[in-house]
Amino acid sequence: MTLALTVNSTSHTIEIADENTPLLWVIRDMLELKGTKFGCGKAACGACTVHVDGEAVRSCSYAVKFAEGKQITTIEGLGDEKNPHPVQQAWIEEVVPQCGYCQPGFMMATAALLEKVSSPTDDDIDKNIINVCRCATYYRMRKAIHRAAALMSSLPLPESQNT
Amino acid sequence: MNVKIALIFSLLLFAGLIVGFTDSVATSEYTAVVYNQSDSPLPNRNFDKMMDVLTHQRCMNCHPNDNIPKQGDESHPHNFGVAGGENDHGFQAIKCTTCHQPENNAYSGVPGAPHWGLAPASMAWEGLSRAEIAESMLNMKTNGGKDHKALVKHMTEDELVLWAWQPGVDASGKLREVPPVSEAEFKTAVKQWFANGAVIPSE
């Protein structure tokens, strides 16, 4: 079947045999956007998080047929090296990643949160950012989320506590 | 004297062994009384069938009394601290729809149906008896203002309710358990129970 979807502001028309194919595999294998990661394949770890019409979605558990006509944003569309999204900038400044594998999903989840809650509390973060990082970079991520919130607003930047 | 005592003890021991070997396992003719729903009056039979479904995990898991959805046949709290939040559909950026789509996902094992979410707190059934669940269900102050006609429609036509009979596979690829009453039987029981006055049997 033929599906039309927009990924990172670029329109794509794809031919796919199984309309229930996870969006993740279309993004990675057909559109060659490798930033979105496969983690658990069960919508649990969040490594595959993308935005569909601005909402965080686990793309490993999202049939591509539901993406037709929707605006998809992946980590590549959030920002790039020359023009990083404030979340990506904060991630760099707080030196968040260790192995890095799960970080795109975390950044996408964080970007979705900051669109809804411009200055999240720790409780907001605990409730909304439930991805899994096996390197346990949660402490640095929390600081980066607060930093990203500050970068996106006029709030003073929190002092980095990295050692 | 000691020889007599020893002889008596020996006889008692021998008798005990004989009794022990011949009657070592106590038997009982007790048999449990099997509750047969078909013996109950018709209105109660409809009520029982309806409640067999409503108290099944496929329904109860999303009618919690603590805003926390439950998962699985053993009804464990939803992984990763997921909760219904203020609107019963999650938090600002992690909603039910972050993972649950309008239909089951056979690849991930994530269940899905239209308007997936928790029942409102006023319809919390967890911990209630069957009669209490029925009272809550019939109370228009707690059931979202539904009269009997609307309740029948909701219970026999709502896609999320009927998902209970099409629950798909879990993350291990194993089919989820369905309620012990068939979808057709449930619908008939619901319609008949309401048609007969929605009488709640005394407990």
UniProtKB/TrEMBL annotation, chain A:
It comes from the Bacteria. The keyword Chaperone does not apply. InterPro entries: 2Fe-2S-bd, 2Fe-2S-bd_dom_sf, 2Fe-2S_ferredoxin-like_sf, 2Fe-2S_ferredoxin-type, 2Fe2S_fd_BS, Beta-grasp_dom_sf, Diverse_Oxidoreductases. SUPFAM superfamilies: 2Fe-2S ferredoxin-like, CO dehydrogenase ISP C-domain like. The keyword Iron-sulfur applies. Pfam families: Fer2 (PF00111), Fer2_2 (PF01799). One of its GO terms (molecular function) is metal ion binding. Keywords: 2Fe-2S, Iron, Iron-sulfur, Metal-binding, Oxidoreductase. Residues 1-78 form the 2Fe-2S ferredoxin-type domain. This is (2Fe-2S)-binding protein. It comes from Pricia antarctica.
From TrEMBL, chain B:
SUPFAM superfamilies: Multiheme cytochromes. It comes from the Bacteria. InterPro entries: Multihaem_cyt_sf. This is Cytochrome c domain-containing protein. It comes from Pricia antarctica. The lineage of its organism: Bacteria, Pseudomonadati, Bacteroidota, Flavobacteriia, Flavobacteriales.
